[in-house]
Amino acid sequence: LDENYLTYSAAVTKAESAQSSIAQLLQGVDELQLMLGDEETGIQTRLDTAIKNEEQICERVQSNSAILQCLTQLSAINRELQDMDRLVQSGELDKAAQKAESIETTVNAMENIEDTHIAAILVERVNLARMNIKENVLREFHKVIAVETNANSANLRVDTSRLKGRISVLFAALDSVKDGENVLKELALYIISAFVKPVLAAQLVTHDDAESPTSEFNVQLSNGSDTTPTDGVCDLVLSIVAFVSRVLGDRVWVDVALTELAQLVLQRCYLQRIPETRTELASFHKTVDTLSGFEATLLAQCADPSIERPIQAAVKRLDELFVERQCARALEQSRRAAESTAFAVYKMDTHQEWSLAFVQATVEDPDTKLASSFAQSIKEHPAAVFPQCIISESIVGTVSSAYQLLNESMQCNEPGLAQRLAETAQNVLDVYCVLFPVVHRQQLRKVPALALQFFNDCMYGAHHCTILGQLAAAENKVNPNWSAVARKFFDSGIRHVAELAESESRELKSLVGADNGTGFYNASDEQQRDALAKSLKRGRLALTQLCAAMRPPNVTPHMFYRILGRYLDAMFAAIIDGIVSVRDIGVDDSQVLSDHCRAAYGLVSLFHLDPEITCAYSTLTSAALVSSTDEQGDALLDSDDESDESETTAQGVRLAKKHCQMSDKLVQLADILMISRADILARRRAGLLAQYSVNELVSLVRALFSDTHERALDIDELKRI
Questions:
Q1: Rounded distance, CA 173 to CA 179, Å?
Q2: Which residues pair with 481 in a beta bridge?
Q3: Coil, strand or helix: which one is 198?
Q4: How far apart, in whole angstroms, are the C-alpha atoms of residue 586 and residue 592?
Q5: What contacts 692, CB < 8 A, 6 or more positions away?
Q6: Which one of 28, 155, 195, 448 has the fewest beta carbons within 10 angstroms of its own beta carbon?
Q7: What is the reported pTM?
Q8: Residues 532, 592: contact at Cβ < 8 Å?
């Protein structure tokens, strides 16, 4: 700038001298023209040229004058920038901020450099200076503020001696720079993050204003069982605000910072303490009033009266938050119950009779009462019974949660919230039904008792889902699809019992199959006879252990009979198939194999149950489960199965005929092994061997009898029958 200034200053001086000479020349020319005239002298042409040159020189003079003026201003701005830097370095931030404002005004007023690169550079230089000023202001505040926190205490200390005379300078600097409020915002949020948040994170916080020095704020912290009440927390936060305002000025608490404080108190004293029962909700209004008063006092300092009030907005949503808390808690409990590996057992002492008394015992506690509309619906609903068996405490708790949520929905006046509660009641059961078999897949496959217990849980869940659906249907405002969940429970229970029966059946078949059937050849041999006896003994032991795991009241008698029938069918089929596959059966072999079949048939005695146990089920039928599907009732009960018979053998035979399809076929095989071909033909004609295929009978005849013409005729006769 200095170099250009000297160049243009000399040029302007020369131009002014030339302009003065030209003016004198023009004056002489005018006089000469008057004396001589244009035609005689010819001076007019030369005069016009001189005038044009003079005009060009005038234009250059004006341009150079404007450039000189601009350079003069830029030189002055440069000196102002240097002064501003010196003020910043000397700590006179308020004057530096004012200087930056003055420089920017000057630059904006210079039309000669408007929208030029020089103007952009100068504006950027001013903005950098402002940023430097704001950083210095914030740095000075941080130097005088010290925060110390540990598990037992928190301390906020301000070095007021270093701030004497500086507060006004710092605030004046912020007033003079653009976005100065952002510095205060950053400072306030630092105090909140470093001091207020750790304080509010403790369970118990105490502070004594009388003992605190004017420049320190001390808080004692504790994370024991005691908790600071809401009014104590609110008073503490207001005391912190007052302390900071006293030592740093109330301008530190910008609107955003005050709103953040309100949010922190809202989180600790409101959102984390949303009631879980209606009794607690009724007493929660005192807390609401305290928080509302706190927010009004805190936000009274805000510059914007229309600023968002988070506590006030949350108070308006109290009912919604109450419902959300109940739903979230119920879903979490359902998830934990499904994932629990405790597998705690709930033993029913008798059949569970569903009635008003049962629902009251399930729902009511000192803080919860049964809704009148719910009670009326229960009274109008027909009684229902769930048969005695062993279920898990997890499903009992989950069903209780569903009843409690549906009870809450019937006490809720807001249709949307009532629907939310009813849907969550359905969802807690749905979550348990879906999650339990996924989490415990391996245990369900390896532990028969657990698989049977889960079957009972599913039937219990389906039973109550159907009842809850019928009760919810009575309320037009709450009617989720309960039948779908009931069906899901039923299908899951049946599927896992079927998988259990199939798995254990394969194991039992491998035990009594006498080493893949080789033990049925040459059965009269002593070693083979011993092998057959051992295989049957192993099968009996395994089957007895399985029966012990499912003996009533672990499951209902009907379920016990059905599963035992599946197991016996597998064992009997393995024995029958093994004997039929033998190509040559001697006289001694047939006697051993016949005895083996009859010994195996003796396993039907396991169908016998203690009459004292079964008599409790003898009066129940599937119709007793009026709330459930016909399929569910048939899966749990059958009055014919529980009829009282004192004779063990008679009961075993009767139940074997009903539940074990292979029992008659095994007895018939024992007879076939001992009777003549004529008797076999006679029984075939009489339809007594209908369970045997032609190929099976032909194979037995060929194995038992010598190859003669009469045998061939009898085989042809068997094929024709």
A1: 11
A2: none
A3: helix
A4: 10
A5: 665, 668
A6: 28
A7: 0.74
A8: yes
The distance in angstroms from the start CA to the end CA of the chain is 128
d(CA 200, CA 190): 15
Listed in sequence order, the residues at least 6 apart from 476 whose beta carbon sits closer than 8 Å to its beta carbon are none
Confidence check: pLDDT of 42 > 70 = no
Contact 576, 665 (CB under 8 A): yes
For residue range 151-163, what is the model confidence (pLDDT) as tens digits?
899 999 988 787 7
What span, in angstroms and rounded, lies between the C-alpha atoms of 330 and 277? 12
Tokens 């912190």 correspond to 240
CB-based burial, 125-160: b 16+ in 10 Å, e otherwise = bbeebbebbbebbbebbeebbebebeeeebebbbee
Quick one: tokens of 566? Answer: 């599946």
Contacts of 713 (CB under 8 A, 6+ apart): none
Buried b (16+ CB within 10 A) or exposed e, 358-389: bbeebbeeeebbbbeebbebbeebeebbbbbb
Tokens of 160: 């007021």
Q: Three-class SS of residue 153? A: strand
Backbone phi and psi for residue 392, each to the nearest 5 degrees, phi listed first: -95, 150
* Residue among 433, 455, 430, 460 at smallest CA distance from 444: 455
Do 226 and 295 meet the contact criterion of CB atoms below 8 Å apart?
Answer: no
Backbone Cα Rg of the chain: 50
C-alpha 654: how far from its chain's center? 53
- What number of residues does the chain have? 721
H or E stretch covering 555: none
Which one-letter DSSP state was computed for residue 382?
P
Q: What is the pLDDT of residues 108-161, one digit of tens each?
A: 877 767 777 887 888 888 888 888 888 888 888 888 889 999 989 999 998 878
Integer angstrom CA distances of residue 363 from 94, 398, 404: 69, 12, 5
Which residue do the tokens 């910008």 mark? 254
Residue linked to tokens 């229309």: 306
Residues 6+ apart with CB under 8 A from 425: 330, 401, 402, 403, 405, 406, 409, 468, 480
User: If DSSP states are collapsed to H, E and C, what string results for 320-343?
Assistant: HHHHHHHHHHHHHHHHHHHHCCCC
Q: Which amino acid is at 196?
A: V
Residue 709: burial class (beta carbons within 10 Å; 0-12, 13-18, 19+): exposed
646 pLDDT band, cuts 50/70/90, is very low
